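Model: Ready when you are.
Researcher: Fold this.
Model:
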Amino acid sequence: MAKKTTRFDAATYLDSEERQVAYITAALETGDADFVRDALGLVARARGMAEIAKNAGLNRESLYKALGESGNPEFATVMRIVRALGLTLSAHPVPTARSPKRRRAA
């Protein structure tokens, strides 16, 4: 007898605004554009693609295409999606690894 499995959908685990924001923040911190696109897509699905598309001024199909695996949304589109999610982007300096200062010999 074959066992039935269910399809894993990470969007089901992004069930609170706190988790959604943490996930998008983690994606942004990597600097990986594909990861950021995927994170925005997962959060949009968790909140409802139709509603996010409407709030972003996009049709649902365009939103799916922009945030899909082969999507490459323009920055203006990303900003519209971020605003539709009720979020803002901010910049912080990248932490640098400081080497210990050497003491000078007297």
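Researcher: Now this one.
Model:
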Amino acid sequence: MHTRSRKGAHPSPNPVLQHFNKSVLTNGIRVVSEYIPTVRSVSVGLWIDVGSRDEGAGKNGISHFLEHMVFKGTQRRNMRQIAQSIESIGGYINAFTTKEHTCFYARVLDEHIEKAVDVITDLVKNPVFHPKEITKEKFVVLEELKQIEDDPDDLIHDYLDRVLYFPHPLGEPIIGSSDSIRQIEREDLFTHLNNNYTPDKMVLAAAGNIDHETFVRYAEKYIGSLERRSHTNGQSRLPNRRSKYVEIKKPIQQAYICMGNKTFGIHSKYRYPLLVLNALLGDGMSSRLNQVIREKHGLAYNTYSFVNLLRDTGLFGVYVGTDSEKINKTMDVLHREFEKLQDKPVSRAELRRTISQIKGNMMLGLENMSSRMMRIGSGELYFKKYTTLDTILKKINEVTSEELRSVARKVLDVSKFSTVVFKPSTPLT
């Protein structure tokens, strides 16, 4: 396994024998692939290093809206032709936007890799943004926003982000607000596209039964002509917010609790101990939170912890859905579990079980070609290099009980947590 970075599409000896390969087109677009000879499918994704955190004032949601709009037609295909071009060959095409990235991807049989590259690159090279389609899609996205508003266990995470990060763009929801969505104009979309969909911010990734040299040729053919240029967004400073408790009444039947603490970013040396801590505390039925909150005390149907790691910051949080009369008791139980991890070393047996769980989940996830593509695509954007699975597993396996306790003391200090609670506006009858 090794990484090669080179300009152009010059062949190298036995390219298909490489597990992972990397090339750089003459315009600066990085092309990465992972060869899996035991499958007949390929997942292809075009990644752009732009997300909701890169949006200017009053433009919240434009990255997500642009992601929608490119599917409404390009200079070469209308919206029906875009969908049919992949679905007619038994494939699947979609896209997503995160706080930091946008990705357009397709999954196809290996014989249709060229078609996948053609269609995905067409979306970002040649969108037309018809005014009538913009008007219609605003309605669609506003309906999506209403759906989120009707889903409190999803919505509460946006509220927590706002408490922790606002007025930084990280404190805004990825989808935007009803006001910001309505204000998006055609010129705004082209400006966002031209400023951010530049070769220096793009990674074309693929995983599956794919020959890297062939993949590079397709990349050169369909997106190699994109003008070489760069654009850097100014990153606003992250706010230093005090911990906060926010309680909101909503027309719901149960209470929802989401509490979190800002922590280190994805490049931190504490990354792997934090992932182990998260799995031990709240990932799965055997986790401490599930065993104590659900099984022992019967306080909730659903509870978990979560980690979101970004370039320069991160979030460690806990979620619980419970009866409104049991909020205080639930919070007390959560705090006690936090204190235990800070005060008492985790036993060797529990640590080994947790590490085995993480390793197993990672290995099972890599049976999916889309998961593999997303790992190498996002990995290239964050780290500019390929990290082997063996390296990751080794780092996870090396996490010690003392490291776990040290990280727990950094992230589980209750005084630093902010909390959002949704409470029913009327009692259950």
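Researcher: Key takeaway?
Model: The chain has two domains: 15-223, 245-424.
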